[in-house]
């Protein structure tokens, strides 16, 4: 995973955010060790989530979840270069995630509010509760952790808010997760089905230019 981050960060001048799962460890000290390794790959940000991956206890205990964020914050700061006045200033943004909606928590809003506020106090730069979709719930999270920024995950099947509507709610960052990749695969699957089932190629009529690498290169310099 670290090599993937390093390769992507080196391939673009754009800031790269690393989805660092649960830090690939349970213990805060081990999370800190891994966060240092991740920060050294050249990423501009990384996220730590409170999901354990266990069905019987899907979220880390509240206090442990906070300690893990504190450990990640300390690890990032320990690698930060000193600036004028001797103060360390990190270039790596720490996003703390509460996975309450994704693990089926019985009261995901309450759980997310409690945890995200605590994560903000523990040193997270950005707060994220993937799965929240209702405007009033998004607004409640934004208000609770203000002035720190909130990230929202958007999938059309569960959130049909526009960019401007999310901005009006106070959202500062938007993620689409695997959405763009899945949209590309949907186009592939639909075209393949048409060829197999109808023997026609109409789906291919609206495809983009063959030399799309140049398109990416041009857009990255706009």
Identify the CATH class of the largest domain.
Answer: Alpha Beta
In the CATH hierarchy, what is the superfamily of the largest domain? Phosphoenolpyruvate-binding domains
User: How many domain regions?
Assistant: 2
Shape category:
globular
* Structural class by secondary-structure content: alpha/beta
Terminal Cα separation, in Å?
A: 30 Å
Biggest sheet record? 6 strands, parallel
- Detail the poorly predicted runs: none
Query: What amount of the residues lies in strands?
Result: 5-15%
H and E order = HEHEHEHEHEHEHH
> For the residues shown, what is the average pLDDT?
91
Number of E-type strands = 6
Computed CA radius of gyration, to the nearest angstrom: 20 Å
Which fold name fills CATH's third level, the topology of the largest domain? TIM Barrel
Number of helices: 8
Largest sheet strand order: 1-2-3-4-5-6
Reported CATH architecture of the largest domain: Alpha-Beta Barrel
The helix content, as a percent range, equals 40-55%
Would you summarize the structure shown here?
This protein folds into two domains: 176 residues, TIM Barrel (Alpha-Beta Barrel); 45 residues, no CATH class. The chain has eight helices and six strands.
């Amino acid at each position: 995973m670290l090599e993937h981050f390093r390769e992507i960060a080196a391939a673009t001048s754009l800031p790269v955010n690393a989805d660092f799962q649960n830090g690939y460890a349970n213990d805060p000290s081990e999370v800190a060790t891994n966060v240092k390794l991740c920060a050294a790959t050249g990423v501009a940000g990384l996220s730590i989530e409170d999901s354990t991956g266990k069905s019987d206890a899907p979220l880390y205990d509240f206090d442990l979840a906070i300690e893990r964020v504190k450990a990640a914050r300390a690890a990032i700061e320990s690698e930060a270069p000193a600036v004028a006045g001797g103060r360390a200033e990190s270039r790596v943004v720490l996003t703390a995630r509460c996975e309450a909606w994704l693990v089926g928590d019985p009261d995901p809003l309450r759980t997310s509010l409690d945890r995200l506020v605590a994560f903000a106090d523990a040193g997270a730069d950005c707060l994220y509760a993937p799965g929240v979709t209702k405007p009033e719930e998004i607004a409640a999270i934004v208000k609770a952790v203000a002035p720190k920024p909130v990230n929202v995950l958007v999938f059309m099947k569960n959130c049909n808010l526009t960019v401007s509507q999310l901005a009006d709610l106070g959202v500062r960052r938007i993620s689409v997760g695997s959405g763009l990749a899945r949209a590309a695969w949907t186009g592939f699957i639909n075209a393949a089905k048409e060829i197999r089932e109808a023997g026609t190629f109409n789906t291919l009529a609206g495809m983009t230019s063959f030399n799309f690498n140049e398109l990416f290169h041009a857009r990255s310099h706009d």
